[in-house]
Amino acid sequence: MLTNNLYNLCGLLLFGMGLFALFACSHLLRKILAVNIMSSGVFLVLIATAYRPLGAGEIDPVPHAMVLTGIVVSVSVTALALILACRVQETSNHSLSQSERNTNDGDSEE
Amino acid sequence: MIIKSRRKNKRRPFDPILLLVLLLTIGLTALLIKANYTIPVTSFGLAAEVARFQPRSGVESPVTAVLLNFRGYDTLLEVMILLIAVIGVWSLTKAPFPQKAVKTSPVQLAVVRLLAPLMCLVAAYLVWQGSHLAGGAFQGGAILGGAGVLLLVAELPWLRTIHSRPLRIGLLIGPLFFLGVALLGIINGRELLTYPGKWSGSLLLLIESTCAVSIGLTLASLFAGGRPADDLIGQTKTPACNREQKRC
Asked: What is the pLDDT of residues B23-51, one digit of tens each?
């Protein structure tokens, strides 16, 4: 039960950290990374949930199936978001991040 | 410049809105943790239900049974999401291959020649194994996608001239077959996504193998980052050129 709680706690903490980064960072790449970290946290919680009724007998296959498809879907969503972010950068002629735009030193970072 | 940006980051926490967001996120996380610990241990779990209907699903692995039979809706829609992601990427850009051919090192070529067939074999084995053990379309597809990424990283010359039509057929075959089998239920007078009893095992295996091919191709083309070179020639050329001129 202790490991189970630990997994749940880690998953929820990852979710919270990702959520904060999603709000706080203005750079699109960081937002995409934040969403990825959030989804990792959710997957961790789901896997821990599947493991929970271990004492009763079997492992619950329903959350497993959800995580299985969720991982592949999150990969594809990340790819689409990255392409969109590249497109934003190409078409909008300036750097993605608000702070970099203000200091005008964003170009050298790429 | 790094020092400057670091200094900026240090100044950040004094932003009152950011502090508020931080406090709200911490509060939300604390609430979630509290809610998580108040869930009773014994009250939930669909394992017993899944085990009860397992013999009627046509496969022996409970995860595959849930994935393709009991929760077929989810999987069908998720396969469609993958397809939509590829459509989105293809409609945005062409695959950004470098202008002139790069000479791949012989060590890398040897590794690719050794690993790519092996990965295809492992993917086929995983799909086959999905009916009774851990494995299935998504795992096999992920490994196929890895093989595709390996080929793309090696920058083999035939990849940049790959034709669009076979790729499109490969991307569509899994979702369309799945959708066709799902609609077959309606045509035969049952509900959507119900499989005929004695054929369900082989139908699930067929769905899994076609979906694995599609998922692998999807992941590889997402990694390539755009449509193939011969896709939609003539239709997009003029607007793209106009846009480039405008930008200049």
From this structure: 999 999 999 989 888 877 665 667 777 87
Inter-residue contact B198 to B176 (CB < 8 Å): no
Q: Which domain holds residue A55?
A: 2-109
B94 strand-pairing partners: B227
Interface pTM, i.e. ipTM: 0.77
In order of A12, A13, A17, B36, B89, the CA distances from B31 in angstroms are 10, 11, 14, 8, 38
Which residues in chain A touch residue B66, judged by CB atoms under 8 angstroms apart?
61-62, 64-65
Look at residue B118 and give its three-state secondary structure: helix
DSSP labels for A16-56?
HHHHHHHHH---HHHHHHHHHHHHHHHHHHHHHHHHGGGGG
The whole-angstrom separation of Cα B220 and Cα B85 is 12
Residues of chain B with C-beta less than 8 angstroms from the C-beta of A80: 85, 88-89, 222
